[in-house]
Amino acid sequence: MDSGTDVDSGLDSGLAEAGAVLAAEAARFASFGWMRGTSGNLSVVVSRDPVRLAVTASGLDKGELTAADVVLTDAEGSAVGAGRPSAEAALHARVVRLTGAGAVVHVHTVASVAMGRRRPEGIEFRDLEMLKGLGHKTHEVAVVLPVIENSQDMAELADRLEAALRPGMPAVVVAGHGLYVWGDDPRQARHHAEVVEWLLELALAG
Ligand SMILES: CSC[C@@H](O)[C@@H](O)C(=O)COP(=O)(O)O
Ligand SMILES: [Zn+2]
C-alpha cells in the first residue's frame, strides 16, 4: 500500500468517526432548540497535515443527522471528494486556521441574535463565575464577545470574524444570524457554546 492510500484510508475512518460524533452533538444542540429548521452547522478537524475538516452536510435537519451526513473539506472549507458541505464551511475553516481550534459549533440561538441587536459594538461580561468555563482562572475578569455584521459572502464574513477575534473569548456573534463558538475538540466546543449561551441569556434577562 502506498503512503497516499494510507493517508486516504486514515481520513476515511476519521471521517466516519467524526460523523458519529457530530451527529450526536447536533442532536443535543437541536434538543436545546439551537438548530431549528435546517439552521446551524458543526465541524471537527480530522487531520492537520494535510488540513482536513469533517463538516456537516448542507441543508439538512441537524437534529436528524446520521454519521454519513458529513463532508470532508480542505483548509479553505472546500469539499474534498463527495458531498456538499455546509454553506458556512469556509468560516469554520478560517476559525480553525486562526485559532488552532479542533472543533467549531454554529447555532442559531434567540439570545445571540437579541443581544447582537442590543449591543452591536460587542457584549461585555465581567465578575461572573461562569467565565471560568471559558478558561479564565477567576471570576474577576472582563471579556468582550464580539458582534460582527452578517454577510452571505463567506470570505467577507471570515474577514470580519478575523478582525473581531478577542483573547479569552472563543466565540463571535453574527448579527441577525447566530453564534460561532470553538474549542479544542467537540466536547470543549459544546461546553464553550453552553457557557456563552448562558452568558447571553443572563445579559438578555438584564
Ligand atoms: C435556516 S438556514 C440558515 C443557513 O443559511 C445557515 O445560516 C445555516 O446555519 C445552515 O446552513 P447549512 O448550509 O445547512 O450548514
Ligand atoms: Zn447559520
Structure report:
Its EC number is 4.2.1.109. Belongs to the aldolase class II family. MtnB subfamily. It catalyses: 5-(methylsulfanyl)-D-ribulose 1-phosphate = 5-methylsulfanyl-2,3-dioxopentyl phosphate + H2O. Its cofactor is Zn(2+). Pfam families: Aldolase_II (PF00596). With 206 residues, the protein is of the alpha+beta class. It has one domain (3-205): L-fuculose-1-phosphate Aldolase, CATH 3.40.225. The chain is built from five helices and nine strands; from the N terminus they run H-E-E-E-H-E-H-E-E-E-H-E-E-H. It has helices at 3-31, 89-99, 110-118, 154-164, 186-205, and strands at 41-48, 51-56, 70-73, 103-107, 123-126, 142-145, 147-148, 171-174, 178-183. A seven-stranded mixed β-sheet has the order 3-2-1-4-9-8-7. Helix 4 (154-164) links the parallel strand 7 and strand 8. It starts with a helix and ends with a helix. It binds 5-S-methyl-1-O-phosphono-5-thio-D-ribulose (MRU) and zinc ion (ZN). 5-S-methyl-1-O-phosphono-5-thio-D-ribulose (MRU) binds next to loops.
